[in-house]
Amino acid sequence: MPAAVHVLGLSVFALGTSEFMLSGLLQPLARDMGVSIPQAGLLVSAFAIGMVVGAPLLAAATLRLPRRTTLVGLLAVFGLGQVAGALAPSYWVLFASRVVSALACAGFWAVGAAVAVSLVPVTARARAMSVMIGGLSIANIAGVPAGALLGQHAGWRAAFWAVAALSAVGLVGVLACVPATKAPEQAPRLADEVVIYRDRQVWLALAVTALNAGATFCLFSYLAPLLTDTAGLSEGWVPMVLALFGVGALIGTTVGGRIADARLMGTIYGGIAASATVLALLALTAHYAVAAVLVAVLLGVTAFTTAPALNARMFNVADAAPTLAGATTTAAFNIGNTVGPWLGGLVISAGWGYPAVAWTACGLAVLALAIEALAARLGGAAGTSRVVARGERQPTAVRAARED
Asked: In terms of Cα–Cα distance, which of 298, 253, 343 is closest to 48?
């Protein structure tokens, strides 16, 4: 992997820490802001909504801009959003700061993913994406538990200040290592890239990605209160369990990145089926502390094993538009990250308890498997794009890689 890909993964560590750290801060934040746990959980959905809107919007808006300049600008806006969150005087100001930060995060993901896959051969796309997604896994191992510890000992606002500092480090890394690109001879046009949305395989891949993410974050967003209120652990154990979840996620990302390039569809089917099984086990064992912790770690493994494969598949089916492919994947992931916590909040508000959240997440994973089976039945098992096959515009980098 080129050094620039690893730098992008390092930057994603800062983004991922901000996105997921609220899972360990829900209780102190809710107490400080005077809101309920489901209301605090909506801050996770607020970030996800910003990602859904921001990914295609910023990908389109920055299509003709130099990619390194775009990445630097987006990281700067993201850092300022973290500062605004740290200083937020009310819940709604914090909510707005999360949306702004998410817009910048979404743009970075969309452009960064396009840069990452452009720097490697087509046969190494899943591995390149696993490096970026690995930043999320390490965020779960180190960033999210550290945020939870800061929240418990220095106040939840300290976690936002820490992420602002991390984003500044990422900005310096992008300036130093991501290569500057020359303006293309023919500037890309949005009209040429949106043609990918004519392909039903793009929409089916989007649905599977969204449902898989929804299954994971329906449960993960409420993992801390599940561990304390249902499994009976003290709040002091939460950072450790979140770190173990992150270890599982890193293992899953590493394994998935190495096997997905050779066995793309098998990785997707196997990973989602394993996640559905693990979520069902968690629903059945949530009242037993040791079992709940072990199964939560397994969920990190299974959920993130599929992530590189799902990202690589989207670049395959949307090959005619690499920038919008990255944006579409980001939007799909965060549609799930929006709907999942929302559904989990509805279940909790209905008084059904945290084990019912795990059952809801299991149902989302099963639905993802059904749609993946439909995509294969309609002829998408190979993950190829009918748009490219019809002779639509194909990026020069992709053509060159295939010729090699």
From this structure: 343
Task: Please name the residue that has the structure tokens 């043609």.
Answer: 195
**∠ CA(357), CA(304), CA(372), 5° rounding?**
80
Please say whether the beta carbons of 276 and 355 come within 8 A.
Answer: no
Amino acid at 99: V
Q: Which two tokens stand for residue 359?
A: 């059952």
Give the whole-angstrom CA distance, residue 393 versus residue 72. 28
Contact present, 325 and 115 (Cβ < 8 Å): no
pLDDT value of position 319: 64
The yes-or-no verdict on residue 219 having pLDDT over 50 is yes
Helices (H), 124-237: 125-138, 144-153, 156-177, 190-193, 200-220, 223-225
Using the predicted structure, report yes or no on whether residue 299 has a pLDDT greater than 50.
yes
Which two structure tokens, joined as six digits, stand for 221?
A: 């967003």
User: What's the length of the chain?
Assistant: 404
Whole-number Å distance between alpha carbons of 100 and 264? 34
With CA atoms as reference, report the closest residue to 252 among 312, 178, 309: 309
**Residue 288: how many other CB atoms lie within 10 Å:** 14
Mean of per-residue pLDDT scores for the chain: 80
Q: Which residues lie closer than 8 Å to 344 by C-beta, 6 or more apart?
A: 41, 218, 219, 221, 222, 357, 360, 361
- The alpha carbon of 221 is separated from its chain's Cα centroid by a whole number of angstroms, namely 13
d(CA 368, CA 210): 8
Task: Please state, in angstroms and rounded to a whole number, the distance separating the CA atoms of residues 131 and 128.
Answer: 5
Whether residue 11 contacts residue 108, with contact meaning beta carbons closer than 8 Å, is answered with: yes
Evaluate if residue 380 carries a pLDDT over 60.
Answer: no
Quote the pLDDT of residue 371: 92
Rg of the chain in Å (alpha carbons): 20
Longest dimension (CA), the chain: 62
For the stretch 32-66, pLDDT in tens is 888 887 788 788 777 877 877 777 777 777 777 77
